[in-house]
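During the reporting period the student researcher (J.K.) took over the structure-prediction task from the postdoctoral fellow and processed the backlog of single-chain submissions. One of the processed entries is reproduced below for the supervisory committee.
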Amino acid sequence: MAEQDPSAAARFMDLQDPRYAYMFGFLQADGHLSQSTRDRGQLAVEINARDIHILHAFQELTPYYSSITERVRSTNFSTRSHTAIWAVSSLEARSIVNDLGIPYGKKSRTIEPPRVDFSHPDYLRGIIDADGSLGWTAQGFPFLALTSASTAIATYLCHHTKKITGTERTLTRTKRDDVYNICYYKETAQQLAAHLYYPGCLALEHKRANAESIAGWVRPPDMRVCPPRRRWTVPEDLRLLDIGDPAVAADELGRSESACRQRLWRLRTGCGPWPEPGTAVEPHP
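J.K. obtained the following structure tokens:
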């Protein structure tokens, strides 16, 4: 837009609007906010040219002048990389997104969910569209995954997914890249994809198509369902340490002897979290 619409500017980045929640999540994960002297700067995002439709949607949602350009270049991954770039330079627009949680400069570790009310599935879909993936594993199972360096974003995905599907994940950074690789499979991936990619939502077309594709997967009759993982609690840890015998503890705690032996070893060797100091041992019913 060449001219600013005052009423539209007032609504810009209202994160309770599903479209802006998605746009903000996408830009927070894959965009870049830069600044220079005399209040100059730019908010920009560069993506594969096949997804240029989403940049046109961003342009329509932005009541400030913005541009979309394309370029073809050689990279470390491709001899011909065709990308599209959306950019807006308005100080007001940059200030709004900065206040909401897109920092200037490097941001991969510091971004976090907005501190204002926002549309949760749309914001998370923006994050997944920018930094995640969904589709089929080599074995033919549905999956949905996110790679992020941000502890806050990784924690948020796990928390939201547990609310929607009941599936838990333990967060651990990879040793090689020092990032979180969070992946959900089979029915959990189906449930989460259906929740995020609902009919009529703003999304990358190829990921929306993948979400629709995995919705049709049916578990083979001979494929067993693994029960949910039962996490150790502080009272259980303390009782296990107090008993000291995996066989006896297994009977009292209702766990397998091998699980008690492994947990006891982890607690004694420091490979697992110790119970908090001063925590009293609660009797096990």
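The committee noted the following: The CA atoms of residues 233 and 275 lie 9 Å apart.
J.K. will present the remaining backlog at the next meeting.
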